[in-house]
Amino acid sequence: MSPTEDERLRLLYGTSILDTPPTTEFDAVARLACSMFDMPMALVSFVDEHRQWFKARQGLPLKEAPRERSFCSHVVETGSPLVVEDASKDPRFYANTFVTDYSVQFYAGVPLSEGETCYGSFCVLDTRIRHFSGRDLEQLHNLASVVMGLIREHRQQSLLKEQQRELELKQARFEQTERSANVGGFEMDVSTGAIIWSDQIYRIVGLPIGKPMTSEEVIACYAPEERESVRRRIRDVLNGSGTGVDKEYRIITPEGQERWIRVVSDIEHLQGEQKRLFGIVQDVSEKVRYEQRLLQAANTDPLTRLANRAAYNAHMESLAAAAAPSIGLLLIDVDRLKQVNDILGHATGDLLLKGVASRLEECVGKRGKVFRLGGDEFCVVLGAPANARSMRSLARYLIEYIGHPMDVVGSTINPMITLGGAISEGDMNAATLSQNADFALYHAKETQRGSYVQYKPSLRSTIAHRIQIVQTVEQALAEHRMLPHYQPLVRCADGQVWAFEALVRMQRSDGPIVPAAHFHEAFADSGVSHHITTQMLENVATDIRNWVDRGLEFGRVALNVGASDFMRGDLESRIVTAFTSRGIPLDKLVLEVTETVFLQGLEDTVATTLQRLRRKGLAVALDDFGTGYASLTHLRSLPVDIIKIDKSFIDTMFENESSLAIIELVLNLARKLQMKVTAEGVETHRQAMRLLEMGCTTLQGYLFSKPMAGENVGEYLSASKPYLIESSEGSQEGLRLLG
Length: 739
Known about the structure:
Structural class: alpha+beta
Strand content: 15-25%
């Protein structure tokens, strides 16, 4: 009979293998699998409650991945081998992290089982569609048997180490007692209250040997928190109702030194009456300090020296037991840690984490307690009662303070954190509080990294709505319903169309076309965003081929790309494949890059990729210039041909003097840098005339045309003529061409 999931998890945790460092034996089996089956990837995967964790991995950078929709979870749940030849077409797995983020197509995995218990899966993966024979599956089973042998050996070694640790601890305690011999005797006459101490007790408590002791003087030797219970015990003995004791106490010597003693006592009875309290006092200070060190080690993160997840769990339990009101919880993610590890090395990444931990403690101070939960995740538990206003204030301060440049081994890093916060209400338990903060952190990471989001109940529906939108877009991508619509860019010099910008639209399953504003949340998913760009490149290249064949003079086509397109390092190959396969030169394409890509720590990658593409004839435009993250450094470091002034400045150019000043500044700067300028969102003749007078190169907006389908571009070009606007003087000489 198969075990329940709780029983399976108990047995899995009993192997003591989760979150252990890599070993050469497990890694060797994974490499052997790659070699035997000619596969680029292999995993020894263990599946716990929420994740799949990889003891050994080849060809994949991940240490763990979500359990939901995973191949390995399916193996565990069925207890059977799984072979998926084309995951992108399998409705169970096409949204899997491996498929969306790492282009995995093929998967073959067998259970890692002991009796009826399945711990996980031993599997091989490929980015190509593959076939896996029965013989291949048998060999994979054989390798899984080797892995199970390694698991059993690891469990046995862990058990032996634990037993050895217990023996060493017991031996240490015994040696402490034997070495120190810090044991003294005492007695107290019940009828008179007279107290007799041996010399060793005087030494332990730090008093002169032979000093007469009263009950109050004995009580004064104890630490303040111990005195009342000792006073009560002595009073009970003198009243004839006392009992023996075996207990540890904290004492303070006259010099202020802290010590711990163990008191073992009993009552002597004579003819049915209590006559004498007697016993021993042992100095157990070394033992207590040793146990405290062990406890501290078990509850301390070794890298940052912050309290760890175990300490966090214990802290939350103690707050719940004390019925603390309005507990505030901040969950904190260190952004771009993976890029730091990949580019600068894990040692640099560790130093970054230590720096962030130090700054967190400096900022939080006595307002709360800081924990490192693992990886790039920290949290702050604020002292009760917490309130939303103070949490927002602290979060903003943390973002600003931690974001200051940090010198790490000769490299200057600008750390960035994203936070989600929640406050407990009523009898809310720690798990619900943590889940609420997790929802808020997820929302912050999906909408704007480097920000703070406070949990509110509507976030659950917001996140559910975002997930629904992502699924809708994924379905549209699968059915090729993501389409480009084209908006013209008109040249100011002669009023002719200079280029078109390709804007993504989604055709709903029932036919209507909806703009990107209706599904913009999906772009936060790197896999979906990457897929959209790929499909747009194919559609745009097809339309350009059609226009060229028809002899249309359309100029160039501009296409937006985002951070996800640069992360995987395949943007250049996707562009080249889409265009050269249709015989289209790259000088027909303009890539529009927004400045938000630099928030992902990709500036060097972006610059290098664009420089290579630019040498092949492609032009580069810096989109939405001047909004939010603008930096003149980007104009110096990036290979930019065109600056696009954001619509927000055009909308307010006549009402807001600063908007007009910024437009003038950008135009003057572009002239000196020999760059073209496009003004976006031009909707009125008045705006167009003013921009024309200021020397703008090209204009774009509803004044000239709304975005149109590719099949309508030819009709638009044949019907369009240079635009004329009469100047304020009304003279014939005032007529000017308007683009």
